[in-house]
């Protein structure tokens, strides 16, 4: 073996040892960073009702007394509702009115801490749906603030309507609107569907790098309707008291959800309590 080949072989062995030990020397970078901060916001009728932060970070794995602090623009606040799951995962329910600018996990048993800067929760929020009821092959037009257009054609954002992936497209002349289009020529699933918008970015450098996910879930934001062949279907009885048993019968009846509601144009009525 030549001297040059021997040097290359030795360098390869050293690099493999570093990788197996989980050590990244200066000048080398990890291709897949798994340290994440996830902030999940839930909206009912476009009003935020829940906010949860989850941190999964190997750097806090050795902390014996984990404490979480968040900054909402007024300095750090100690979050009392912190729960730990294993060594490196912590989660807390936050005040749903908060918008976080940074977070910090400290070890009460030492001076160690990990700080998460650059958290930007100024993602434009959906305020309403232009047409609350759409067909399975129609675009969904959503309304929001004047900067809602930044979500359109932006690779930082991924969108799902129910279980269907969607693209966000701009609407010329309307910065406060975008349209959601099912990917790959797919159709949206019928029924009352959640709209989930996820912003994923990598923040920081070197040892301070982490992945931030801002998730916004708008529960039952839109109702998707389609053709349903009702030929030959029977319902018995056709009237009765609330709570009465009703039977629908037909050969080859396709699977579907049935709701008893007073106004088909109100997606908020498509809830479990109104489902047959």
What does this 3D model show about the protein?
The chain has one helix at 3-21, and strands spanning 36-44, 47-56, 66-71, 76-79, 83-85, 89-93, 102-107, 113-116, 128-129, 133-135, 140-143, 157-161, 164-170, 177-182, 191-203, 210-225, 234-236, 247-249. With 276 residues, the protein is mainly beta. The strands form 3 sheets. Strands 1, 2, 5, 6, 9, 10, 11, 12, 13, 14, 15 and 16 form a 12-stranded mixed beta sheet that branches. Strands 4-3-7-8 form a 4-stranded antiparallel beta sheet, with no helix packed on it. The chain has a two-stranded antiparallel ribbon with strand order 17-18. The radius of gyration is 25 Å and the shape is elongated. Residues 6-31 have low confidence and may be disordered.
């Amino acid at each position: 073996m030549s001297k040059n080949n021997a040097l290359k072989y030795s360098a390869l062995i050293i690099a493999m040892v570093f990788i197996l030990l989980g050590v990244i020397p200066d000048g080398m970078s990890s291709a897949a960073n798994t340290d994440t901060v996830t902030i999940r916001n839930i909206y009912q009728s476009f009003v935020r009702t829940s906010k949860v932060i989850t941190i999964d970070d190997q750097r806090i794995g050795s902390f014996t007394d984990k404490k979480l602090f968040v900054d909402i623009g007024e300095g750090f606040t100690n979050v009392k509702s912190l729960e730990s799951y294993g060594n490196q995962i912590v989660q807390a329910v936050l005040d749903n009115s908060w918008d976080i600018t940074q977070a910090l996990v400290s070890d009460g048993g030492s001076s160690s801490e990990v700080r998460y800067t650059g958290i930007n929760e100024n993602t434009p929020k959906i305020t309403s749906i232009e047409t609350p009821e759409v067909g399975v092959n129609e675009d969904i037009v959503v309304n929001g603030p004047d900067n809602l257009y930044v979500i359109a054609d932006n690779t930082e954002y991924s969108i799902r309507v129910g279980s269907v992936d969607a693209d966000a497209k701009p609407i010329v002349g309307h910065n406060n609107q975008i349209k959601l289009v099912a990917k790959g020529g797919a159709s949206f699933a019928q029924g009352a569907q959640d709209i989930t918008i996820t912003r994923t970015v990598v923040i920081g450098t070197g040892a301070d790098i982490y992945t931030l996910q801002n998730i916004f879930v708008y529960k039952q934001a839109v109702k998707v309707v389609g053709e349903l062949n009702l030929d030959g279907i029977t319902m018995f009885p056709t009237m009765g008291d609330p709570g009465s048993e009703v039977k629908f019968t037909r050969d080859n009846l396709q699977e579907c959800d049935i709701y008893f509601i007073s106004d088909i144009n109100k997606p908020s009525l498509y809830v479990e309590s109104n489902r047959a």
